[in-house]
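#data-curation
PF: Archiving a pair of folding outputs for the training set. Convention for this channel: one message per protein, sequence first, structure tokens after, nothing in between. First:
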Amino acid sequence: MAPTSTPQTPFGRVLTAMVTPFTADGALDLDGAQRLATHLVDAGNDGLIVNGTTGESPTTSDAEKAQLVRAVVEAVGDRAHVIAGAGTNHTHHSVELARAAEKAGANGLLVVTPYYNKPPQEGLVRHFTAVADATGLPVMLYDIPGRSGVPIETETLVRLAEHPRIVANKDAKGDLCATSWAIARSGLAWYSGDDMLNLPQLAVGAVGFISVAGHFVAGDLRAMADAFLAGDTAKATAIHQKLLPVFTGLFRTQGVMTTKAALALQGLPAGPVRLPLVELTEQETEQLKRDLTAGGVQLG
């Protein structure tokens, strides 16, 4: 059973896109995943995204994905929403992943725009609808044209919002004009998928965040959201500005690489990345330390 939610915040307000811990030899580290998931919920996250891009889903097998969902659900129980990434650029495969995630105990699905094959908007409608029809789980769309090559247009979001199980959108489009119109017209619960735009997205109607920085600053993110929603924009802005070095540091290079390096610095489970990702250089690690320290993150 997932935590209490509302139509306005169906997955909570502060969620972290969780890395997938691996052992030193690159195998799935289920014990580490459970320990990390517990740590993140204890730190104030309402939910965890597993098998997303930050979870290195392109390099994990279908069996590993199911194992990871089961392990994280077992670790956090009803204290947090566990949202499973199920999107690929193959609709039938996405349906299979969605059903496997439901069977493994996920509370919801994150479904990214099909990437590389550049489908038209009608193809997106049919793809997302097929996945949403496949299970009884609520679905969050994931709009990230910088990775997928195709945006989900506002008219498409409006159409998809008519589906009873498509309830939210993770927005990493980086276009506040399009975001404003889509929020106003679709009625979907809106989650910022770009840490640097968390506060601006709140200003145009987002209800929360799916954050990479939430591995380290979930409490600050909640305080920022609470302050903004209470009308204390000065406090919200101050928190946003405090976190700028963290947001910048985690994305100076590829975000999974930096996040796993930072977790290792804190003594938390992470392990290596899988190729084609690589470990940070010594210089990159030193810069990351400076960035995180400037943003108030305590390192080991």
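PF: Second:
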Amino acid sequence: MAQAPDAPVVLRVAGRPVGGYVTRPELPDRLSPRPFLHPVTTLAGTAVTELSPADHTHHLGVGVAVPDVEGHNFWGGRTYVRDRGPTELANHGVQRHTGFPLCDPDGFVEELRWTAAGTELLRERRTVAATGLTGTAWALDFTFSLTNATPDPVTIGSPATNGRPGAAYGGFFWRARKEDRAPDAFTATAEGEAEVHGGRADWLALAGRDWTLVFAGATDATRRDPWFVRTAEYPGVGSSLASAERLVIAPGDTAVRRVVTVVADGRLGRAEAAALVRKAVTQ
């Protein structure tokens, strides 16, 4: 069914609200205004996202954020400039919501336009769905398709491709809730931020005090992207579009990524995380 662009969107699983989606936030340009999911909660109601926290005010719940699209910042905050480091620049872009071709309680399809300096660079179709898994876990299925809207190639970069090792953030990004103790991060074969950050794995888990998030790339292209992981400085997980080199999107071409996230109450072990993410990706 159609929905007014500014109407509130609430995702539900079996009637329970599990996520709020903001389409047109009123934010300063420096935060690269864009739609986002917040708050996202477990089925028991535990919040697992943060919005504009003091440590990184440009972290906006769950969404798509890219620090370098042809030199324009769609991540927010400072821009990493080669040989200069993080630099304040007036180069921020905006992701503009243009409509919902479909919007239901368990998900939606959204159209967006990525614009900067008066130019439309990318068109996006975003598909988000919420699905119940068990009595204590549900899955957020998040797909985004970025189409080059210009007559020339559009390239996507990151601080890593611009000279900052280990900082290949940009793409799907989930800012989790900060607690007194840093969350644990693990995959099927590795554990700890130092071991999982920058690696490729079928799934990656972030476990807090009484919640666990399990992220999985659900396409071959997504699984080839390394994970960007932070636990000590702040809790956040992303899938890196541009890790070793810039991602090039030819005129009219589309880059597609799909990440499925299990949102569970309690702290899951490896076997539980693997079983739930298999169920989430295959159903």
